[in-house]
Design a protein that fits this description.
This protein is of the alpha/beta class and about 230 residues long. It has a single domain, classed as Alpha-Beta Barrel (TIM Barrel). The protein is about 40% helix and about 15% strand. It contains 9 helices and 8 strands. Strands 7-6-5-4-3-2-1-8 form an 8-stranded parallel beta sheet. Helix 5 links the parallel strand 4 and strand 5. The longest helix has 21 residues. The radius of gyration is 17 Å and the shape is globular. InterPro entries: Ala_racemase_N (IPR001608), PLP-binding_barrel (IPR029066), PyrdxlP_homeostasis (IPR011078). Keywords: Pyridoxal phosphate. Pyridoxal 5'-phosphate (PLP)-binding protein, which is involved in PLP homeostasis. This is Pyridoxal phosphate homeostasis protein. Belongs to the pyridoxal phosphate-binding protein YggS/PROSC family.
Amino acid sequence: MINIADNLKAIHQDIINASNNANRSSVAVSLLAVSKTKPVSLIQQAYDAGQRHFGENYVQETVEKVQQLAHLTDITWHFIGPIQSNKTRQIAENVDWAHSIDRIKTAKRLNEQRDSNIIPLNVCLQVNISGEESKSGAKISEVTELAEFINNCPNLALRGLMAIPAKGDDEVTKQSFIKMQTLFNQLQHQYPSVDTLSMGMSNDMTIAIDCGSTMIRVGTAIFGARE
């Protein structure tokens, strides 16, 4: 039997420990619970234990969960999966954050499809920091132009950067995170709205926090392995 409340307590303690070791305040690091493929009953348990931010990867599943849990008015939904052009409207209409913007075309569609009567959609630019051909994300050289475009979109709020580095040893991972931290610092100097560096998961969160991550994404350690 999964005890989600205990799992969340353990992860928050890990965040505190990693932040202390990095001489950072643990308050500066938030936890995004990755709830993809998990039933709403488990999300409800996490919510009851105090978790408010949830990340989803699949559009139809996201929409269904948003609708089923609409009564939880202070829940915050993050879409963290690849964004297909024919799915942008559903994302624009249903979530609070989109972490995987990697091209102007996608940002343009989200801006046009976000209702101007609600708060802007918070967005992070996904960066292909390791330069993997098989992985989504903007090239480092594309970040400046993409950020400027998003900053000029009235229905989008530029919040920061997201990355999933290539698998490797700790030193390889750390170098990728250091590159992300440098990009993030540059973006912060240009745009006051930028405050989020979304990087690090269960296996590399300590390194990510040491390199300035402000949001870690954890799924299995909270909800258990996928069935």
